Each structure stands twice: as C-alpha cells, then as structure tokens.
Amino acid sequence: xxxxxxxxxxxxxxxxxxxxxxxxxxxxxxxxxxxxxxxxxxxxxxxxxxxxxxxxxxxxxxxxxxxxxxxxxxxxxxxxxxxxxxxxxxxxxxxxxxxxxxxxxxxxxxxxxxxxxxxxxxxxxxxxxxxxxxxxxxxxxxxxxxxxxxxxxxxxxxxxxxxxxxxxxxxxxxxxxxxxxxxxxxxxxxxxxxxxxxxxxxxxxxxxxxxxxxxxxxxxxxxxxxxxxxxxxxxxxxxxxxxxxxx
Length: 247
Prior knowledge:
By secondary structure, the chain is of the alpha/beta class.
C-alpha cells in the first residue's frame, strides 16, 4: 500500500441527510486522506449506504458540506461529481453481461473524446490487472462474481479517478475470492488511487485500510488508523466478535 499523504482528498463536515421526514446521517464528520484506503464499518442501518449516496450526488444533504480537494460538492449532479473524479463501484454487479470485458471497460472512458487516449488508458489498466486482459474478449456474464468485481475495478480506473468509492465489494464472495478482490484494491491504491471503502466484513476491511471509521445510528462512533479501530476493545466486542490482538 502507498503511504497516504496528510492533506485530505475528501472532507465530510457535519452531514445530515435522510429520506422523507427522517434523518439517517446525523452530523457525520470525517476525512479521507489523499492516497489512503479509508474503510467505513458499522452494523446494518448505521447509514453507510446513505453516506455513499451523498458523496456521489444521488442524495443532497440537508446540512453540512462535502468537499473534494477543496471544491464543494453540495448541489452538484452525479455527472458533475463524476467529471470531478469521483467514481463508484456499486454493491450490486453493474457490468453489461452480453458485452465483452473489453467493451465494458471501454465504457468506463465514455467521457473521454480522444479514442487514442482511451486505448492508452485501457492498456494501462490491463497492465495493472493482467488477469483482466486475459478475459478481454469473453462475455462479462460468463465470469464469476469475483472476476466481474475485478473488471468493475478496471473500468473505474479509466477516468483516472481522484476518489474511488467501493460499496461492499466483498458482498456474496467466498473468503478466497475476497482475498483476491482486496488484493486488487491494494493494487489500485499502490497505483495512486484514493479509496473510500464501505465494508460489511469489518475485520477484512480494517486490515486492508490505513484509516478506519466506525458508524453507528448515523453518527461516527470512532475513527483512527485501521489498526487502532481493529484493536479497540469495545469496537471489537460490538462488531468484530472480539478485539484483534496483534503480536
């Protein structure tokens, strides 16, 4: 993993947001350091998915500000936020299954008009994920769940994102496949990508991350390094089935 730089890529400051008459997020404040993997964990209903919707522009906060490298995201459309470099890999698989892997990755660069630049970027993505290059002419629907996830990661890199949002990337994957998917996330980070990861598998996500954020009932319960959160006794009992003792 790269060593994250101190200045934040993303700042969430006092975010209040919800559906209808009820607030799901209640004053959420934390930042994502540039060059880091930051993992958000917490029980179902903690507000993790709502958090992702606010950052990507699918939901507007009632109060608070979201700032990307000093630029306020409040009021911007999902497309405008995408153009600023925030790319989300959703929880549910999002590939076009009847299209080839190459065609799916090509779609990741749909906002780039220069086709030569798209081809250059695709080569760079294939260099990072050589196994994906081997699947290039296969139909996306013929791949396993874990393989599809790697193709989604590759597609996300086509726009040189400032921030990659990974929403529950381990969902439905076996422990062995999960290991390869998280290794791919580490590869993206080593290539310079800043990653905000929301993960139900708290132990695996925090082991991967530089920074950890624990949410509970729409608020930030605890934040610190991934290791600090992983080893915190109270958090360990609540979410991890006992604290992890590192030797």
